[in-house]
Amino acid sequence: MDQLNQQNRSGSKLVPPPNFGFVETDLYRSGEPSELSFRFIGSLKLRSLLWLAPRKPSDKFEEFLKVGGVVLHDLGIRHAASLDAVTEQSVTQALNLILNPSVYPLMIMCAGGSHRTGTVVGCLRKLQGWNLASIFEEYRRYAGAQHHIMNEQCEFNFLKHFLKKRKEKKV
After folding, report:
1. What is the pLDDT of residues 56-71, one digit of tens each?
2. CA–CA separation, 153 vs 150, rounded Å?
3. DSSP code of 124?
4. 10: confidence class by pLDDT, cuts 50, 70, 90
5. Dihedral over Cα of 99, 68, 114, 142: its sign
6. 108 Cα distance to chain centroid
7. What does this protein do, in the record's words (predicted)?
């Protein structure tokens, strides 16, 4: 027990950020980290971080990314605290980045790691051929206690609109 406490005090403990998860190889998702999670994030050897939160990352987190050579892609979704801030343009920008393997390893991050991140990951899943039931199951898993029917309905409507626009562009 003393050895375990000594390891924890020495900073060897890796603490993932809230709502951390693997999307696919070298693509991760999470909520905004506290300083406790910086070592864990560093262990992922990220090349890029896609920031979807309505406010800028903390100065300490930005400095951590800079020192680690991680490129911050801040989409500037700043105008609303709701999913209304997730626009077709912002999701298209996010997907263009996610579909570019040269930016990997990549982490997608918003304040809680559920709603904005979930919407972007949901659109990615649809592009990957997932059915809506599986997409919403994943969304609910990360939204947890914050899961609200209105948020899910908003994401569903967004997905339908996004997919309709993609089909129109292909024709």
Report:
1. 999 999 999 999 999 9
2. 5
3. H
4. very low
5. positive
6. 3
7. Putative tyrosine-protein phosphatase required for protection against superoxide stress.
**Residue owning tokens 């105008």:** 79
What does the alpha-carbon distance between residue 69 and residue 53 come to, in Å, rounded to a whole number? 21
The answer to whether the CB of 50 falls within 8 A of the CB of 94 is yes
Cα–Cα–Cα angle for 148, 117, 132, rounded to 5 degrees: 65
Q: Which of these is catalytic: 27, 50, 110, 159?
A: 110
- The model's pTM is 0.81
Domains (range + CATH), the chain: 14-170 (3.90.190.10)
* Closest among 111, 92, 124, 136 to 52, alpha carbons compared: 111
Confidence of residue 139 (pLDDT cuts 50, 70, 90): confident
Q: Is 110 one of the annotated active-site residues of the chain? A: yes
pLDDT at 7 over 50: no
* Exposure of 157 in the CB half-sphere (CA atoms within 13 A): 10
CA separation for the pair 50, 98 (Å, rounded): 9
pLDDT band at 48 (very low <50, low <70, confident <90, very high): very high
